[in-house]
Amino acid sequence: MEIWVNPRCSKCRTALSLLEAEGAAHTVRRYLEDVPSAEEIRAVLERLGLEPWEITRAQEPEARELGVAGWTKEPADRDRWVAALAAHPRLIQRPIVIADDGTAVVGRSEAAVRDAMARR
């Protein structure tokens, strides 16, 4: 299992604590330092079953600077959103937990993290 985290994020710290408390084997990716490529973001989106605008933190200053609130959310716009996430990783919702079965969840709740741990 892999977890994408920002160590300054309380939700990320909570998810990591849960994984550690449960003894779940995992690797930690500090995605602000080890920035995922556009291809990796597309792969995670596929695993999540979500669109890039669904994992974009639109309240971040970078999002306001880019004007993402005005961007359309159509399949043709997907690459623009993915490119923004790759160029500005702070916009990626966190934490993202990639389960052992290859699926993924946005682990903002204990239930979501437990769901990922149960996927084998």
UniProtKB/TrEMBL annotation:
Pfam families, A to Z: ArsC
Coiled coil: none
InterPro entries attached to this UniProt entry: Arsenate_reductase-like, Thioredoxin-like_sf
Similarity annotation: Belongs to the ArsC family.
UniProt name for this protein: Arsenate reductase family protein
